[in-house]
Amino acid sequence: MQSTRMWLARPFYERSSLIFLGVLGAALALVTVANLVVPEGHSLHVSTYTVTLLGKYLCYALLAVAVDLVWGYLGILSLGHGAFFALGGYAMGMYLMRQIGDRGVYGDPLLPDFMVFLDWDRLPWFWQGFDIAGFAFVMVLLAPGLLALVFGFLAFRSRVTGVYLSIITQALTFALMLAFFRNEMGFGGNNGLTDFKELLGFDLASDATRLGLFIASGVALALGFVLCRAIVASKLGRVCVAVRDAEARTRFLGYRVERFQLFVFVVSAMLAGVAGALYVPQVGIINPSEFSPLFSIEVVVWVALGGRATLYGAVMGAIAVNYAKSVFTGVMPEAWLFALGALFVLVTVLLPQGGAGLFANRVGRRRRDARDDDAGASSSQLSTEAST
């Protein structure tokens, strides 16, 4: 038990992790104060709409951290993490739909509106239990985790790696998208799940609930970052890096590589599910478009732009790209994807380590210059003393 606590406490002894958590905590506090204390109309006031938008960015950041864990430290380029994100979102959406009750359009206390519209006479078996918050929150972790466990067991046991694994993950999320588009699946078909009313008894339309979801997203991001940082700083993380850099040699040394891959892959999928669950009540809808392979590819772009194998770089990339997307889709909606693709190519060619790598290189260069200056000053002083 003591060793487990020490393992999880390692990030709190790292300067970079403490800086990241401090910046995140300060940002949460400033936005909260600017929303609650600063009066409307003031230049420093943060509206509820902006709070919701920032909460969505934090959910995307947690998803990017999950992708960076498997891609940056394990070498698995997953193009299907959007599926885990969407499964967590659907689990939360099913709970929110069950909370509507007889307040829906058709007034049915048991069946969601889309089921009444499709003339369903009973609730499907897989919807049972989602009226209980605890069960729904467990399914937020269990649904993506179980899918990752089954998929990862089959893929890693067969030693599928590289581009072949990426293609298979992309095929997985595409197959799920096609399945969830069907009305017969019982998940709302093309329209998905929407018209949510409350979460844990709190009105989703109220400003206080919106702010609470924003804070919850920030706390989830902090906990996810700490968990991932604890993993990569442990012996498990060192083995993962060895697998990334030389999988065959790691196998030769006697490590069961597939077990390490499977564990980290499942943890990453669960984090993506949590991000999806927090995302849904803030945007008010979940539909099969979240399974789109294009979305999963976009997540990879966030991580690449921010910087692989840094975790905080993934957060920076997710927030920066989505902020730019919010701004420029209103200015050039048709050209935005082309601009994002061009930016990805330029960063890959000119900055292969992303924005975080550029920052780290500059800090390292300054430290080396400072050490060289100190060494030069010391040698000059010694020469002066020797001459006298």
Structure characterization notes:
With 388 residues, the chain is mainly α. 71% of the residues lie in helices and 2% in strands. The strands form two sheets. It has a two-stranded antiparallel sheet with strand order 1-4. Strand 2 and strand 3 (202-203) form a beta hairpin. The chain is globular and about 65 Å long.
Order of secondary-structure elements: HHHHHHHEEEHHHHEHHHH
Figure out the total of helices: 15
Total beta strands: 4
Helix content: over 70%
Structural class: mainly alpha
Shape: globular
Tell me what portion of residues adopts beta-strand conformation.
Answer: under 5%
**Main sheet record:** 2 strands, antiparallel
Radius of gyration: 24 Å
Widest β-sheet, arrangement of strands: 1-4
Low-confidence stretches: none
State the distance separating the first and last CA atoms: 62 Å
Mean pLDDT: 87
Provide tags for this entry.
mainly alpha, two-stranded antiparallel ribbon, 2% strand, 388 residues, globular, two-stranded antiparallel sheet, 15 helices
Summary?
By secondary structure, this protein is an all-alpha fold.
List the helices and strands and how they pair.
Layout: H1 2-9, H2 15-36, H3 48-72, H4 81-98, H5 113-117, H6 133-157, H7 162-180, E1 193-194, E2 198-199, E3 202-203, H8 207-232, H9 235-245, H10 247-252, H11 257-283, E4 285-286, H12 293-306, H13 312-331, H14 336-350, H15 354-387
Antiparallel strand pairs: 1-4, 2-3
Helix pairs in contact: 2-8, 3-8, 3-11, 3-12, 3-13, 4-6, 4-11, 6-11, 8-11, 12-13, 12-15, 13-15
